[in-house]
């Protein structure tokens, strides 16, 4: 947004542990710090999605020890470890990859049914398998079928609307 990276970090302070902030802030410049922030965020989000809870979960309960510090684009890493309430979680694996210079992906693999099941049947991807396929908008809609016939008048009407509402003056009634 329009704020500075330090202001953004201040707002997000409670979402990470002191150890995680130490790693984030250890990066050599603000953009690399932001990059490490988003890597941690992707890991936390992957865990929350895997256990099926929302962002109301206290994110300081989970701490990630990322390894290695720098991810090579296209390579899958499984070295990052998670602590839950200060204890290492051995049954969870996190697969991370970097899609490009701006995008991290993290997938949580581990216990199912919100911590209940002891033996996980989750299959990890083999290193030589293609990991991700980047799709364009056209790829995604290529097989789409319109639910109604195209109405050019509707589109023209939509395009003629102002992009932002006009503030009405207090004098006109």
From TrEMBL:
Domain of life assignment: Eukaryota
A GO BP annotation: lysine biosynthetic process via aminoadipic acid
EC number(s) from the headed UniProt entry: 2.7.8.7
Upper lineage: Eukaryota, Metazoa, Chordata, Craniata, Vertebrata
Family annotation (InterPro entries): 4-PPantetheinyl_Trfase_dom, 4-PPantetheinyl_Trfase_dom_sf, P-Pant_transferase_sf
Catalysed reactions, as listed in the record: apo-[ACP] + CoA = holo-[ACP] + adenosine 3',5'-bisphosphate + H(+); apo-[ACP] + acetyl-CoA = acetyl-[ACP] + adenosine 3',5'-bisphosphate + H(+)
A Pfam family: ACPS
Family annotation (PANTHER family): L-AMINOADIPATE-SEMIALDEHYDE DEHYDROGENASE-PHOSPHOPANTETHEINYL TRANSFERASE, PHOSPHOPANTETHEINE TRANSFERASE
GO MF annotations, alphabetized: holo-[acyl-carrier-protein] synthase activity; magnesium ion binding
Species, as recorded: Platysteira castanea
UniProt keyword list: Transferase
GO cellular component labels: cytosol
Residue ranges annotated for the 4'-phosphopantetheinyl transferase domain, each copy included: 7-108
Similarity annotation: Belongs to the P-Pant transferase superfamily. AcpS family.
Name of the protein in question: L-aminoadipate-semialdehyde dehydrogenase-phosphopantetheinyl transferase
């Amino acid at each position: 947004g329009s704020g500075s990276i330090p202001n953004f970090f201040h707002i997000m302070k409670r979402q990470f542990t002191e150890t995680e902030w130490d790693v984030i802030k250890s990066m050599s410049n603000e953009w690399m710090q932001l990059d490490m922030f988003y890597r941690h965020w992707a890991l936390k989000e992957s865990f929350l999605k895997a256990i099926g809870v929302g962002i109301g979960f206290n994110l300081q309960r989970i701490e990630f020890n990322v390894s290695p510090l720098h991810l090579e684009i296209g390579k899958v890493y499984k070295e990052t470890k998670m602590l839950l309430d200060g204890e290492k979680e051995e049954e969870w694996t996190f697969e991370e990859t970097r899609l490009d210079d701006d995008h991290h992906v993290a997938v949580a693999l581990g216990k199912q049914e919100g911590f209940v099941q002891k033996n996980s049947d989750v299959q990890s991807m083999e290193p030589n398998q293609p990991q991700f396929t980047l799709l364009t908008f056209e790829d995604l809609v290529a097989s789409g079928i319109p639910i109604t016939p195209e109405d050019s008048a509707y589109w023209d009407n939509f395009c003629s609307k102002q992009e932002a509402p006009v503030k009405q003056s207090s004098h006109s009634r």
